[in-house]
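> example.struct
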């Protein structure tokens, strides 16, 4: 990611370890990507925690010399490092994660009835899993480096209650409305979309395909796709598109031989460029991919594999911009064909366009950046400009 980060004029600090150098169990990774209920999520998070311990020292080193630390909820070492260094910390979450009575968390939305009590419980579960993923790395590093646990050792998520150490959330208020019972220092103003370089040029093969008929259906399952699923998924996709007489683009599954003329296989390309050129997007329901589909103003067909993907699938359906979720274990050519037909109804198409117009009125990245700058008086410094 170094070139990507530096391309925006931002300094880059490399964490040397990755899942290969850490010898992460490939089977465990696959289990994590297919954890389709809270118990499985909890078990896989528990298995993953040991890998965080081995790179905690790199996380802490990256924090030294900072004036402020912004941390992901799965890397709580950032919070405790900030306390140790005597600087502010800001929680930056890619999904709503603070306790509320008003809506269910992203690990239970669509799976359980929403009531004030069950909603609170669902957030307790979500925060518990995130804390489980990082607490041992904090504990192990602190004891080794400083001889004892950090002060106030425990889940830090609900501690961001003052304007100097706020929390910022990446989510549209037209998708999950900001709850009224959050404290005033939890800020949610919209998605944090990256303004990608738009000088992307499609290959001649893709460009010719896009201009040779009606808008195709995009189908891609991102990082949750495994090669051992390729043959079965390809067969389902080909049959489903044939049953609906639609053209399709299969993304991120590598080269696929013997595809019919109505389907093309491509490598991953910028969603912001492609999604505006297709009739609907079929994907796994990752938070970022779902947001990109909503932004593009096209209907969604979501096939969730695990974790919060089920929530985004159900939310798309509830908003009237997506077909009913099809869990990967239940995917067949018939129900995929039916989902395509459902998603392409005129009402769904118009709903998707309306949601995109609403989302376009928000600028979550800019407004949350303003919160960070203003909360710590960076605005008066030349470098803040």
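> example.seq
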């Amino acid at each position: 990611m170094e070139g990507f980060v530096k391309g925006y004029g931002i300094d880059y600090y490399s964490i040397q370890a990755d899942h290969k150098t850490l010898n992460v169990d490939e089977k465990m990774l696959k289990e994590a990507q297919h954890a389709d209920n809270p118990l499985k999520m909890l078990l896989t998070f528990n298995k993953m925690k040991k890998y965080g311990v081995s790179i905690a020292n790199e996380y802490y080193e990256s924090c030294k010399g900072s004036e402020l630390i912004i941390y992901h909820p799965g890397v709580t070492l950032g919070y405790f490092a900030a306390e140790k260094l005597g600087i502010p910390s800001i929680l930056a979450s890619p999904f709503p994660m603070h306790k509320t009575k008003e809506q269910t968390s992203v690990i239970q939305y669509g799976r359980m009835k929403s009531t004030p009590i069950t909603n609170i419980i669902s957030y307790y579960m979500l925060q518990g899993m995130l804390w489980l993923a990082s607490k041992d790395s904090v504990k192990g590093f602190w004891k080794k480096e400083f001889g004892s646990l950090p002060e106030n050792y425990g889940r830090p998520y609900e501690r961001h209650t003052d304007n100097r150490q706020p929390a910022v959330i990446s989510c549209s208020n037209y998708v999950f409305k900001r709850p009224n019972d959050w404290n005033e220092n939890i800020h949610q103003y919209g998605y944090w979309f990256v303004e990608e370089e738009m000088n992307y040029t499609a290959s001649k093969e893709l460009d010719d395909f896009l201009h040779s008929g009606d808008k195709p259906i995009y189908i891609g399952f991102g990082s949750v796709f495994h090669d051992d699923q390729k043959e079965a998924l390809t067969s389902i996709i080909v049959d489903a598109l044939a049953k609906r007489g639609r053209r399709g683009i299969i993304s991120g599954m590598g080269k696929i031989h013997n595809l019919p003329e109505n389907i093309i296989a491509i490598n991953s390309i910028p969603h912001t460029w492609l999604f505006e050129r297709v009739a609907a997007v079929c994907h796994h329901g990752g938070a970022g991919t779902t947001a990109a589909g909503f932004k593009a103003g096209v209907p969604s067909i979501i096939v969730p594999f695990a974790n919060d993907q089920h929530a985004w699938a159900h939310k798309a359906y509830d908003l009237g911009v997506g077909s009913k979720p099809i869990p990967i274990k239940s995917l067949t050519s018939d129900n995929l064909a039916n989902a395509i037909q459902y998603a392409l109804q005129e009402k769904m198409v118009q709903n998707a366009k309306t949601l995109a117009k609403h989302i376009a009125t928000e600028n979550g990245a800019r407004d949350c950046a303003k919160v960070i700058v203003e909360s710590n008086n960076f605005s008066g410094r030349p470098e803040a400009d």
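> remarks
The chain has two domains: 2-191+362-384, 204-359.
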